[in-house]
Amino acid sequence: MLEIQQIACATVAAVGVGRNLNLVLAQQWARHTQLTAQQRGAISDLSYGTLRFGYRLDIVLRQLLNKPLEDTQLHWLLLVALYQLEYTRAAPYAIVDHAVRCAAAIGQARAGGLVNAVLRNFQRKRPALIATAMQSETGRYAFPPWWINRVKAQYPRHYTAMLDACNTHPPLTLRVNCRRATVDEYLARLAAADIAATRIGPVAIRIENPLPVDRLPGFAEGLVSVQDAAAQLAASLLDVQPGMRVLDACAAPGGKTTHLLEAAELDLTAVDSDASRLARVRQNLDRLQLNARLVTADAGALDSWWDGVPFARVLADVPCTASGVVRRHPDIKWLRRAADIERFAAQQRALLDTLWQVLASGGKLLYATCSIFNEENSRQIEDFLSRHADARRLQLSETISTDGIPDGQLVPDNEHDGFFYALLQKI
Question: What is the pLDDT of residue 405?
Fold first, then answer.
C-alpha cells in the first residue's frame, strides 16, 4: 500500500499545480512499469477519489491543523490518507502507518509525528469534523465556491441534484454497433457471460457493475463501443443520410465520428488539431472496421484543410469547460477557473462562425458541448442567431430537456453526463 499511496500523492499533487490527471497517470504507468493492473487500479481510485472529494476533505484537514502546511506534497498526502480513511475499506492502522512512511519518502520525515497525529485525530473526531465540513456549501458539494454559485444561479431548482450527481461514479454505457448486432442480440451475449445490463436508449446499454472493456464480449471485434448515453444522441440529432458529405470538427477521440459512420455510409472528414488524439480516432475506426478521412489541423483555420466543397452536415463538438463530465474527470474541479468560461465561449464563438462557412445551403450543423454552463450553450446559440440572418434553430428530434432547464440541455443524472445540443440549418 505504501507505493500505491506515494504514487497517488504525487499524482494529485501534479494536478494541484495544473497538470491533467489522465496525462499524469499515463506518465506514472510509463515510469513504474512494475505495477500490476490491480495496483494501477488502486492508484487511479485513490487519485480520482481524492480529487472528487478534495474540497470537502480540505475543510476537514484545516480543522485538524493549527496552521496551514507549507509543503504542498505533504498537504496532498494528508488528503489522500483522509480519503482512504473516509471512503475506502483499507485498514486504518495501515493507512496511518503508510502515510507516516510516505512522508519520509517525500522528504518530510520530521513531519511524521504531525501526519500520525492528524490522521488519528480524524479517526477519533470523525463525525464532528465531517458535520462541520458539511455545514458549508463547499464541504457539502465538494466543489469550489464559484462553481457552486454559478450552477445554483443557472439551475435554482436542479442544482443540488446536479452537483450530487457530479460526485457519483459514472455509469459504464455501451453503444451497440448496429451494423454488426442488434441491442437484443448483444444483451443476450452479456447475459450468457453473466454480466448484468439494461437497455437505456436506441442502441445504448448500461452495464450494472463496471468492468474492464477487455471483458466485454465482442469489444475487440467492434460489436460495441464505450460512449455515454447523452453523447450517443449526436448521431441521430444530426440526421445523416447515406452518401452525405459530413464534417466532424474537433473529432477526437472519435466516439461521435464512429457513431455517425455506424448510422450511414458517409463521405466523412474528421478534423482535430491534436495528432496523438487523432490517432485514437484511427484506432477506433480500425476496431469498428469503418473508414473516414482524418485531417490533423485547426478546424478554425480553413485555409489549412478545407478544399472549398461545402458539407451537407457539420458536427461542431467544440472545446468547452467539460463541466458536464466532471464525474469522469474530477481534476476539472481543480483545473478550471471562473474566467475560463468566457475564454472557452470566445473560442466557441469564433469556431462556430468559421464552421458556418463550410456548411452547404439547406445543410444542418449540430452544435455540441459537454458543458452545463449557459454561457457556452444556450447563450452561445442565441448570440449566434443574432449574428447570422441565414441561420435558424431547428427543434430537436428527441425531447431532451426538462422543466426549468434550457432547450437542448442535458444535466448529469444516473443515466448520462451533462451535454448540450443545438441543431442549426442554413437557409
Answer: 85
List of E strands, 216-325? 224-226, 245-249, 267-272, 293-296, 311-317
Rg (CA), the chain: 23
Phi, psi (rounded to 5 degrees) for 413: -150, -165
Q: What is the CATH number of domain 2-140?
A: 1.10.940.10
Q: What is the pLDDT of residues 29-40, one digit of tens each?
A: 999 999 999 999
Cell 464534417 locates to: 247
Q: 9, 102, 320, 370: which is the annotated catalytic residue?
A: 370
Q: Residue 269 and residue 294: Cα distance in Å, rounded?
A: 6
Q: Is 370 one of the annotated active-site residues of the chain?
A: yes
Q: In which residue are the cell numbers 448500461 written? A: 206
CATH architecture of 172-226: 2-Layer Sandwich (3.30)
Q: pLDDT tens-digit profile of 177-220?
A: 999 999 999 999 999 999 999 999 999 999 999 999 999 999 99
Q: Which residue has the cell 484537514?
A: 61
> Which helix (H) or strand (E) element contains residue 326?
none
In the chain, where the domains are located = 2-140, 172-226, 233-426
240 φ, ψ (degrees, to nearest 5): -80, 150
What is the residue type of 277?
R
Return the CATH architecture of domain 233-426.
3-Layer(aba) Sandwich (3.40)
Residue from 25, 62, 52 nearest 328 by CA: 52
User: d(Cα 233, Cα 188) in Å, to the nearest integer?
Assistant: 24
Residue of 250, 273, 248, 280 whose CA lies nearest to 263: 248
Between strands 409-410 and 419-426, the pairing is: antiparallel
